[in-house]
Specification:
Elements: E1 4-10, H1 14-22, E2 26-31, E3 38-43, E4 47-53, E5 59-66, H2 67-91
Antiparallel strand pairs: 1-5, 2-3, 3-4, 4-5
Length: about 90
Amino acid sequence: MIEAALLTLSKNKCDETYETLSGKYKLIKSQIPFVGSKLVEFQDDECDIIIDSPHMSFTMDVIYATNAFSSKAYKEVKKQEQDKKEHTKEMF
């Protein structure tokens, strides 16, 4: 079973991709400034969908991930952040 998929597309497709996905999925988070990086999160019953369009890039990523995969990834990132804080504390 596939738990995550990453699509790399031309940044020119960002608005079109946003419009297409907004018709299919529930919008969770939208950061679309006039200038700068764009980040949009959608969700349905089974997966999370993220559009990540960095400001100084020619491409954008569209990420599909199951809820279970997203949860595991979130926990791992939080653990790494905590480990880094503890390591920094130990250095002083």
